[in-house]
Amino acid sequence: MPLRPPLIRHLKFPDLFGAIDCLPCLGTPVNDRTFEVFNPSTGELLAELPDMGVTETRAAIDKAFAAQAGWAALTARERSDMLWRWHQLIVDHADDLAAILTAEMGKPLAEAKSEVSHAAAYLQWYAEEANRIYGETISPPSTDRRMLVIKQPIGVVGTITPWNFPASMVARKISPALAAGCTIVLKPAEQTPLVAGAMFALAHKAGFPEGVVNLIYASEGDAVGRELCSNPKVRKISFTGSTEVGRLLMRQCSDQVKKVSLELGGNAPFIVFDDADIGAAVDGAIQAKFRNAGQTCVSANRLYVQSGVHDEFVDKFVERVRQLHVGDGFDPGAAIGPLIDRRALTKIESHIADAVAKGGIVRCGGDRIGKEGTFFQPTVLTDISRDMTVAQEETFGPLAPVIRFDDADQVVHEANDTIYGLAAYFYASNLKRVWRVAETLEYGMVGINTGRMSSEAAPFGGMKQSGIGREGSRHGLEDYLEMKYLCMGGI
User: Fold this and answer.
1) What rounded mean pLDDT belongs to the chain?
2) How far apart are CA 96 and CA 104, in angstroms?
3) Which residues does UniProt mark as catalytic (predicted)?
């Protein structure tokens, strides 16, 4: 059955979507099921896509498996050149990609453009790193043998990407895999599949051989995920999403002892000590809390402010938050877009209600904007205690709870008292304190006097139940390589 082209309404991207119905990288549906993609700002129907399942996923895995040996056999330079071509096409079509991203996810267009640029940066980085996969020689215990280590691609990789960064997560996951010599089967989030489709269309134009990159559209991830985890042709799973789903994928992979990379939930503390630059701390808190409407795994979720500067910080912070304009992502003045769906609205409202019932004070915001859409006022709560849900769970929305503290050692203990360990932030000027706190915080990433730290050159990942493995940097490449020891006798 021929693939039904997506129905793109009110958006004009013929260069990206004109031939998507015949792309080799897109699986062929075996039934008439479809699902719809909507703009969260307006409720407008953006596209109707084929709803794929186990059969299509298995076929995509077979294609990736058949292409694996040939892709791995290419020289590092040949794989690098392919990534470079894809990178350049992403750059050339950045405005269209950003517009698609804003339409399906809702984030302000300026943020979407920044994300597309970040996606291109990952492709550039791993196009370069493809040429730097090195082995090693080992001094042998006797003169008649030689010992060395080589690194080879792990094989077919199944990847599942989230809705909150639908362009950069695609690039961050699959560019190191491709650089290492692995082939890919990707399932993007059902809320935001269009930008992934556009990026894969550009990958096809870049000249990737058939079967190297494979895309699965699906409205439900369960069946696709089970097939990726259970199919023995898939050697590794890379997933970004909730800790709950990450645990499930680990269990499903355990029978085959399949390798996994998991970037899961967070509950990031943001600590302001009394020796901090308060203006800089407010700037950092705005950035770390309200970027992408607070819908990031590294969002500041608990703001701890020392008593000596608490009131000054709160006053300045609330003033800045009140100035944040919420609106459609295509509105040039919008700083915050909509939440992804109504479930997100319900969650943030429940966290606020619980906090207020237990003595919390709403300093600004606290309500939906309008009866339609999924817009919510950026909100600041004070008088927060540890028994409140907002102090224990990740909100994933524009809600900033501020917690007063006195003792510096105790606040680090409270910051660490969580199952999560993805990102943390703190502001301080005393060098002794900076080193002590940075080393004591149990998080994979720590921002010191900054509210933003993601970079393609740095390892992104967490400790504890925030995940396994790292993405980005040279370390991200290692997760897609097998180490093989060679011992040569009779030399």
Assistant:
1) 93
2) 13
3) 263
Q: Quick one: CA torsion of 102, 103, 106, 108, rounded to 10 degrees?
A: 40
One-letter amino acid for residue 214 of the chain: N
Give the pLDDT band of residue 139 (cuts 50, 70, 90): very high
Task: Give the separation between CA 394 and CA 385, rounded to whole angstroms.
Answer: 15
* Residue 34, amino acid: T
Where in the chain are all domains bearing CATH 3.40.605.10? 14-264+466-486
Q: How far apart are CA 26 and CA 50, in angstroms?
A: 10
Q: What are the start and end residues of each CATH 3.40.309.10 domain in the chain?
A: 268-455
Per-residue DSSP letter, 369: S
CATH architecture group of domain 268-455 = 3-Layer(aba) Sandwich (3.40)
Q: What is the pTM of this model?
A: 0.93
CB 398 within 8 A of CB 372: no
What is the Cα–Cα distance from 378 to 133, expressed in whole angstroms? 45
Of the candidate ranges 47-51, 130-134, 209-213, the one whose mean pLDDT is the lowest: 47-51
How many residues does this entry show for the chain? 491
Q: Which fold has domain 14-264+466-486?
A: Aldehyde Dehydrogenase; Chain A, domain 1 (3.40.605)
The pLDDT tens digits for 184-201 are 999 999 999 999 999 999
Please tell me whether residue 321 adopts helix, strand or coil conformation: helix
How confident is the model at residue 17, as a pLDDT?
A: 53
Q: Which helix (H) or strand (E) holds 400?
A: strand 399-405
Supply the residues annotated as catalytic: 263
- Name the H helices within 3-75: 14-17, 54-73
> How does strand 136-138 pair with strand 399-405?
unpaired
The answer to whether the CB of 316 falls within 8 A of the CB of 277 is no
